[in-house]
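Review box. Two proteins, two foldings.
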Amino acid sequence: MANMRHRHSIHVTHSLSATDAVSDSISPLSNKHRPSLQSSLPHGGLIIFSFLIVYISAFAAVTFWNTWLPQPKGLSAPLSEFSENRTRLVLDKIMDFGYRPVGTKANEELTPKYLLEQIEQIKASKAEGVSVDVDIQKPSGAFGLNFIAQFQNIYANVTNILVKVSPCNATIEALNNSLMISSHYDAAIGGAAASDDGVNIAIMVELLRIFVLDPPKHATLVFNFNGAEETIMQAAHGFITQHPWTDTIRAFINLEAAGAGGRELLFQTGSDELAMAYAEGAKYPHASIIAQELFQSGIIPADTDYRIYRDFGFVAGMDFAYIANGYVYHTALDDVSRIQLGSIQRLGENIVGIVNVLGNEPGRLEKVANNLQTSRAFFADVMGFTMITASKEMTFMLCSGVLIVALIYLVLSKITFSERLTAFVLLMRCYGAALASSLTIGILLSVYAPLSWYSQPYLAGALFISPALAAMVHQLILVLEKVKTPLLMLWRLQESLLEAVMCVWMAGLAICMQLGLISSYVLALWVIFPISGQILSQFLMNFRIYSASIYLIISLSAIMIPVVHTMCCFAVALMFFIPLLGRSGPVLPPDLVLSILINPYSDDCPKRIMVQHVYRKVVLANGKVKTDSGLWVNSLDFRGLDPIKSYMKRTQWKYDHMHVAPTELYEHAEVYGHMPWSLPVKHILPEDKSWYLSAAPPKLPDDSHEANLQVLSSTYSKTTNRRTIHFVFTGPSHMNLFIDAKKTNLTSWSMGNGVSGPVAEAEDAYILQFCSGIVPASYQFWIEAESNEPINVAFVGHFLEATTSEMNEFASVLPTWTTLASAVSTWTTMQI
């Protein structure tokens, strides 16, 4: 290798052909310094076959690792051991209660009653001396939140079922240091909620059964069976800000779902100590610092109770979620059949191990509390067998060491700067051609076959990469055709390209480290292992035990670890992000990101549709009222509603001219649009991409309570130029209030005790979301506005369990590859 790297003078011929420039700048070696391996070259077929074997083997290993689940334990398993089959009995019972959004009978009465019965049965079986306390909390409150948009989240009478387990002869340390386990049993609009989050509630019941028999010796356990998470984390806020048990909580474990079944992923942790505890206690580890940094960057439009416990309770925690099969997330397809055998067993056993590590070691929870929010640890699992953890400082020290080794390697290299620069130009051409080809495919698909890859993520990845690889190979062929003496120059070209790629990885590594990203370690893998292969090659050449075949084996072996690890990361990314693109709204064409020519939807990977039977009313200043009604239909993916147009021919909306977007009911009556939004997502689901199908006014059940906003008093002070208005707002469990911000500036209000004042307006409106566990809901509050001008407001009521004949007619003609979420909604706007 030393002979091969001997530097010669390089003559670069200026040419109009870029390929000529590349070939000319890679100089042939003199016969005197020609290494022995140049006398032969591996057969092209052997090279291709070897690379295929490596990548197919890596793919097979990653696929097996990604799908393997432990054997579930049966009903006869000892009560001291976690049993998936016992857990499924609890889950089945919860699912029998039906649709469980906040405010429904299933969520407010049936599920809590059943859980309390289970808790009392478990309490009766506790070990002697173990203390089990039960409390039911019904908190009310409010808090401002920047999630999707800025809004105020107001809640009343939501439910937390709380259980505290203290060990026998509990020490002061155990009583003053609690570990909380939390999940929620309420459902999202349209969701069956087996995985999100019924299964985790059932897992908590089984965990409680285990720990009343043998609780940790140095900690108290608090179980929070949470009844209002899908309403944007309301019950968690009520607990962590109002309940007396929170004073001793030092850490928490939050159980969530963004899919159904499979392996749960630890995707957030708030303390290095917790990451270490997971590494020690998890029997089947699956964790990634990459997932944590992606989630906390805000790229993923989702949040969990973890955020509330962290930001309002100042407690460190761990956030776990099922991420497989995200196609059924928040849909009616999220039933028990989607949860694979073994997925419950692995999560349950992992939590048991973590709790025992944190609770059975003296002072462990105190360490977590004393190092609050120091989530500076690197953590990643190794093929699900074990965990690697390190501090951020150690991780960056190792990455810096990789950079130093790489720089030394480049300085000592016999490849000239000119050769390296020319190889870099070739590399950029390859990348540019790859990007151009894949973007072309993406653009063509977004025009002619949008979302056609949606139901086949693995084919999507393969067929998206294929045109990119073809374009890169084409660029290399153009260069190789210009090489005048291939045998002499090919090895030099290979080393030049290797070092050019290495420079790219090094630059990326340096940038990521400068940004403070612990996930920069992935780039370090792609630097250090190829370098190690090259150093080993040089070492063997010095002992004259080197050949082209040996070089090929070393090169393939050197990239094996980064290839497998990168595949693991991509498997998780595909599993999570492809289903996410199916509910990212009709604005961004995801085909520019992925591409594949196949059928877009299937029964298991459905198209998501939201339909609301709407009654709209505008109350004019003169007291007159204008109204209309119809079905408001939204598609949650980029293809919009065109795929279901033909199915409408069997309904009263069979003509195309009926499929129109909603318009203003009255001029200048718009406040955050002119439709009944349940969440502030108007920027994600533009109204002009939806349908408003004319229909008769919805008929609500006799016991329904329509939304009504009443002004109790209004006073104005000329001295301060402030107007104070007191309201009473009544109606169904889910309501919204939108206050115009184009002409109105709010200076104060009573929500959240007025601590932080009005939240910043979003899209020219102050947005307030109300949710109650008791119907009819009733709120009294006041606002203070600058000036005495009239204020435009719109208020909305949602009836999640109601249905109408028009909604049934619409749903009856939809194909099986769609899934529907529905509600009856009222929208009223007026001046006050």
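Next protein.
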Amino acid sequence: MSKSDSQPLEEITQLRAALDEANYRYYVLDDPTLTDADYDRQLQRLQQLEASHPELITSDSPTQRVGAAPADGFPSVAHAIPMLSLDNAFSREDIHAFAERVAERLECSADEVEFTCEPKLDGAAVSLVFEQGVLVSGATRGDGRTGEGITSNLRTLRSVPLKLMGKNVPELLEVRGEVIMRHAGFEALNERAREEGSKVFANPRNAAAGSLRQLDPRITAKRPLEFHAYQAARLEPDLGDTTHSELMARLSTLGFRASAELKVVKGPQAVADYCEQLGEKRDALGFDIDGVVIKVNDLRYQRELGFVARAPRWAVAFKYPAQEEVTTLNDVEFQVGRTGAITPVARLEPVTVAGVTVSNATLHNADEIERLSLRKGDLVSVRRAGDVIPQIVSVVKKNNGDKIVFPTICEICGSNIEKVILYKKLKNKKIPKPGAAYRCVGKLVCPAQLVETIKHHVSRNAIDIEGVGVSLIKKLVDDHKLNNLSDLYLLDECYLKDLPGYGELSAKNIKFSLDSARNIELGRFIFSLGIPNVGAEASRVIGESLGYVKRCFYIYPEILSLVPDVGWSAAESFYEFFKDSHNIEDVKKLVSMGVPDNKDYGVSSELASSVRMSKIISQMEFDGVASGTASKIEAAYDSISDFFEDARSCFSSNKIRFSKKAVVGIASKVEDEGFYQKYLEIEKQLIELGVHWTQALAFSEKGSQPLKDQIWVITGTLVNLTRDEAKKKLQMGGAKVSSSVSSKTSFVLVGDNPGSKKDKAEKLGIEVVDEKRFQEIVGGLSD
């Protein structure tokens, strides 16, 4: 009897180990030990043994990479930790500015800060989750908060370990990285496509992203894809690594391919040198990169620096100049966006730039047209900024064609186009930004703005109404059936079915989608309104902070901007939107129709804890009053009204000894009746909201944060309330709601038909509660 007959398990184990080792050496160490023929022979032998002994097949076997049946679609997956984007740097000066910002917060010299530098791969970002060392899920980045579950497809990549290597394997590991396609593999893929008469891919990034989204994993398996790790987003338990470079070395020992170009350097000068040196060999790498990712190496410093709404403060992406080509400018069209912004778009003779055919390019604004002094027929240099958006860089050869003139009247609605000076807030001072924007003042009277607003409203990340596409929206606007957002929900089914290309079934489906769009979470509803400068993340935070749609109608930007992750521009735009009587009227109609959730969940603890008198004082921008003096004012006075009264009496109370400059600066503003009344109104609003600093104790005693520091997970179908309602109650109590169970989880709320989360919680000894017990815990938090 042969060894394979008498000891199948032993041979299977040896073959799996040999194949795993071969994958590790090939994809991680770049030191292959098996030829492709030898690898295929061993894999075939393993397949034969497992076919004879199916009871010995395990999910982490190399034979199980491909095996899932074609899917109907991809499920949505909420990221436990958002996959944020990075802020960009384009020059040595930008790198130095980033390093100085980091150093200022860390209170040290920029030259003392240690950074890691590595190529910014140009592919598709994904996340992999391993539990007890085994791959359990994989997802795309999506919008950063929610991606698509593509586990079956990611399993087909030989550079993705199905089981972690080594002995010190964490209980939970979430690895993020980029799936790329090397130039050689991309060319071979397109060559096969041309031979078969199939569609060719424009570039390796599109090829990688498209390959990952195949419904049939067998197609993905045939594509030359590679996974390159760049971050350990979650690692439990902590294995003692103190730097990003140590974490990447650990990922390598666990079986992942990390960048061979990763380098640890000190100070911004060394970072800039690395970027320059990598740029010089960029074309020889064999795969596309569009820059360098620069991170603060010390993990303790990363935690201290934290995040802004959409990006970490401890990292930045340096972007290389893109490729440029020369072509002819045929014309310029002026498009009207959702907010009325006028965007000039250049129409070009088609030209290939960085592997993509370009026929249109952005010109940004009127200043850019003036700078270039464009005329029809000019030969222009075009590049893909950030390797994505084509733009005109310069005029190579002038022509005698018509000069391009920025319009003063909207071509769509005939309204005036006004110049808008944009501002940024720096240390509580409004500073004009360079250049200017131009906007059509027609608002929703302008059909172009109305179409874009409705298009945004029904989009996937907003209300998510199926069947209402751009062509239908344009038709409805042209027929004057839609004049605002609320008109959308009054559409008549009989009218819809008589439209060209639509029938009774289409009309019924659209009407059903519209009628189903009810009780929408406040954050999503705010985002759906398309308020300028208020993106998805800011909308979510505002919704959770205010807790009630009617508070949106009057909240002052001075209060809203105090909330972490809500900047001044977002808060001010939000306030201006709801100052418009037409907007308020339309929102009130939507509320009466039940589109947004109209329950009052109360003001969030995050808003309450963000309100400080010193912050309000700093917003007042008194000459001679810095943050230190603002803190002294906070300590000396109970309210703004008390402080103002003392200021108007020339500080007769002698509570604080102010500098002469501060006395003059305060008096000059407080004596202004408009300024005086405005901030008294702001203080009154703080009191009405229950978040005034004098109410902080009462807010806490009211039961606002009895669940502080707790982490909850919700699983199964709830009977007496929705998941969103349960989540809001928990957040109001100060708890965090996670999508996955770990050793840090405090409670798991279980409804009907719970998944594996309940089993995992019980195995970890975490308390599992039903709805009745949940209501006992949260008590009257919604009152």
